[in-house]
Amino acid sequence: MKNGVREGHFAKKQIFCKDRLISWSHRRRFEVGLSLARQFAGKRILDYGCGDGTFLAMLMADSVAPSEAVGCDLHVNLVEDCRTRLGNGRGLSFVLDSELGSPCHLGAYDAVICMEVLEHILDVERVLDRFVSLLVPSGQLRVSVPVEIGWPLLVKQVVRGIAGWRGLGDYPGTSPYSLREYWVSVFAGCRQHIVRPVHRAEDGSFFHDHKGFNWMVLREALAQRFHIARTASSPVPWLPPHFSSQVWFLARKRP
Prior knowledge:
The chain is an alpha/beta fold.
């Protein structure tokens, strides 16, 4: 299992990145996520947008693990790769996003975890509605998204620029900002502040990059469907989201 994790496409570029800052930041995000997921020991969870399966593999190897964990992704190649590298793990399986509409998944999960995915989705409202349909009554949601407004944006753009120059990390389709866009992004409020660019992946699907993502806009959409108990941050949990790299929403499905 450990070797399978190290061979993951994103793991190689993130938690096992040669750059210490990039590696530390992503490792801390995973550590915070694991600490928040340990309360689901013995329960059934879904990791939506599981990517290379790194998070679920680490969670299922923990001494306090869910009884069953399902990883879901939109891309066939990622799901097949996860099944090949990690599919032999006890209680761990992987499915395509298109399979989640079947009765065996509806209302079947005690918790849905979604890490660093929603910032890339064009139709976030549809995905949030899907989360509602997948959760049991009073099921819980753990969402992690990047902080791309305020002063953290300026720091991130510098780090991304250096990482891109060195050929490190994984930042596909990262769009540049104009001076005006930097200004309105640093002082953004709870409304969408700039137009977000749309990119096309090799498989023909469309996605947003990080540019223009506003975690406070997402918070409002979440609050319409879930009770948000609190937020957490990473890489430093005690910092408020406005001074962090990522923000976590700890939410529960409304009755």
